[in-house]
Amino acid sequence: MPKAYGRKDRVAALMLQETAQLLQQEIKDPRVKMATVTEVSVSPDLKNAKIFVSFLTDKQDEIEEALVGLNSAAGFIRSTLAKRLKLRYMPQISFAYDSLQTEAMRLDALIAKGLNKDAPLEDDAQS
C-alpha cells in the first residue's frame, strides 16, 4: 500500500519552498519580476519536475518574456537546488505559467458584474 504522502510529494514540497526562496532572493533577471511559485509537479520516477509560476501582470508578452528568462536560468536554479536539497538525483526542471489566479480573478469580476445589475431580482418583482 503506497504512503499517503510519498517521496514524490515530499520532493515537490521541498522544491516549491526552495525555488520560491531562490526566485525571491537570488535571481536578478529583470524579465522575472515578482514571480510566485504556485505548484511543483514531479514525475513518479523523480527525473522531471515542472514548476508552475504566476506573475502580477496579465500581459501575455511580459509573461512569455518572464518564462523565457526563467527557462534560461533553469540550469542555475537546478544546480542551486541540488546543493540545497542534497538529493541523490536532481530532477530536470522546466517552468510553466499557472493561469489559475488570472482565471479566478476574471470569474470573480464576471460574478460581481452579474450581481451588480440594476434589474430587480425575481423575488422582489413578485412582492
From TrEMBL:
Keyword Cytoplasm on entry: yes
Subunit structure comment from the entry: Monomer. Binds 30S ribosomal subunits, but not 50S ribosomal subunits or 70S ribosomes.
Q: Which GO terms describe its cellular component?
A: cytosol
PANTHER family from the UniProt entry: RIBOSOME-BINDING FACTOR A, CHLOROPLASTIC-RELATED (PTHR33515:SF1)
Write the protein's name.
Ribosome-binding factor A
**Which SUPFAM superfamilies does the entry link to?**
Ribosome-binding factor A, RbfA (SSF89919)
- Tell me which family the UniProt entry assigns to this protein: Belongs to the RbfA family.
Q: Name one GO molecular function term.
A: ribosomal small subunit binding
Q: Which organism is it from?
A: Candidatus Anaerobiospirillum merdipullorum
Coarse class of the protein's main subcellular location = cytoplasm
Question: InterPro entries recorded for this chain?
Answer: KH_dom-like_a/b, RbfA, RbfA_dom_sf, Ribosome-bd_factorA_CS
Cross-referenced PROSITE patterns, in alphabetical order? RBFA
Q: Which GO terms describe its biological process?
A: maturation of SSU-rRNA
Q: What keywords would UniProt list here?
A: Cytoplasm, Ribosome biogenesis
The task this protein performs is described as:
One of several proteins that assist in the late maturation steps of the functional core of the 30S ribosomal subunit. Associates with free 30S ribosomal subunits (but not with 30S subunits that are part of 70S ribosomes or polysomes). Required for efficient processing of 16S rRNA. May interact with the 5'-terminal helix region of 16S rRNA.
Alphabetical list of HAMAP family matching this protein: RbfA
Localization terms from the record:
Cytoplasm
